[in-house]
Design goal:
mainly alpha; four-stranded mixed sheet; globular; 10 helices; Glutathione S-transferase Yfyf (Class Pi), Chain A, domain 2
Length: about 325
């Protein structure tokens, strides 16, 4: 299974299933507690966004979650963490089965996050960017008391603008460097990535959060890339101008978020490393998974509180992680 485009730039296949789950059910899928199953892998940064937002908003009971294993083959993500290697609710071994139930001739990527309609076993959507926005706007009646406003109306234009450049240059930028098939493509991606990281560092030097004075959708989207940076992107994807831990502002910002309930308590560094180093055999043909880096420094003081703002604004932090969704012991500094 090859990820590198020989001799050229990496281009992400962005053809997603864009059906939406909405309060009014206009696409045929109304918001309904317990009807849908969010399928994720903790290894995937796009899926991790949905895991974080779901937890911040308190949607655990309304939108149950299936966790696929950290690796996949050319066919699909698999439920190899479950007894019998089968999701206990959907009754399937591979996420691919839910895609084919909806579209028998489906030929695009079998991606996470995906939301599956439990009543039919068919995937509803894998449009990762819209999924988290809809969690904020369409699932509102099912939010927990004290849920933060991650996509407040007054800040949406600025959040959208920040998200757009962060996606192009950082979230997808690390992949454009890692999967570059030529020196020219790699050099361009590398320069673009670190120019944007410098821009973000300047923006965050005097502001605790990316937009406004509380956490928003923008912080969630940047965090899932930053938390993987030293463990994967610095070495595996050759994004090695400096480590995140060598960038004072971004490192403190990332630690601040990591130590905020709903962020670090969803991160599984073991799954993250096993996914990238085992699946991308065209980059890492030996399949050797590095032992480091040391994770203890994620819990060091971040000292960003004096910048002002509070993580949840007028809201409250989420409660403890549900036991069945806790990151396994030894998979991160907060795990176990």
């Amino acid at each position: 299974m090859s990820y590198v485009n020989p001799g050229g730039e990496y281009a992400r296949d962005s053809r997603y299933i864009t059906t939406r789950i909405t309060a009014d059910g206009r696409d045929g899928f109304p918001v309904e507690a317990g009807r849908y199953r969010l399928v994720v892998s903790r290894a995937c940064p796009w899926a991790s966004r949905a895991v974080i937002v779901r937890r911040l908003l308190g949607l655990e009971r309304a939108l149950p979650m299936a966790i696929a294993g950290p690796t996949h083959d050319e066919r699909s993500w698999t439920f190899d963490l479950d007894p019998g290697r089968r999701d206990p609710v959907l009754g399937i071994e591979r996420l691919r089965d839910a895609y084919l139930a909806r579209h028998p001739g489906y030929e695009r990527g079998i991606t996470v996050p995906a939301i599956v309609d439990v009543t039919t076993g068919k995937v509803v959507t894998n449009d990762f960017a819209q999924i988290t926005i809809d969690m904020s706007l369409e699932w509102t009646p099912l939010h927990r008391p004290g849920a933060p406003a991650l996509y407040p109306p007054a800040l949406r234009p600025e959040i959208d603008a920040v998200n757009e450049v962060v996606y192009k240059d950082v979230n997808n930028g690390v992949y454009r460097a890692g999967f570059a098939g030529s020196q020219k493509a790699y050099d361009a991606a590398y320069e673009r990535l670190f120019a944007r990281l410098d821009w973000l560092s300047d923006r965050l030097e005097g502001s605790r959060y990316l937009v406004g004075d509380t956490i928003t959708e923008a912080d969630v989207r940047l965090f899932t890339t930053l938390v993987r940076f030293d463990a994967v992107y610095h070495g595996h994807f050759k994004c090695n101008r400096r480590k995140l831990s060598e960038a004072p502002v971004l490192w403190a910002y990332a630690r601040d978020l990591f130590q905020t309930p709903g962020f670090g308590d969803t991160v599984d560094f073991d799954h993250i490393k096993r996914h990238y180093y085992l699946v991308h055999r065209d980059i890492n043909p030996t399949g050797v998974v590095p032992a480091g880096p040391d994770l203890a420094n994620w819990l060091e003081p971040h000292d960003r509180a004096p910048l002002g703002g509070t993580p949840f604004g007028d809201g409250t932090p989420p409660g403890p992680v549900e036991p069945e969704e806790a990151v396994p012991a030894g998979h991160g500094p907060l795990a176990g």
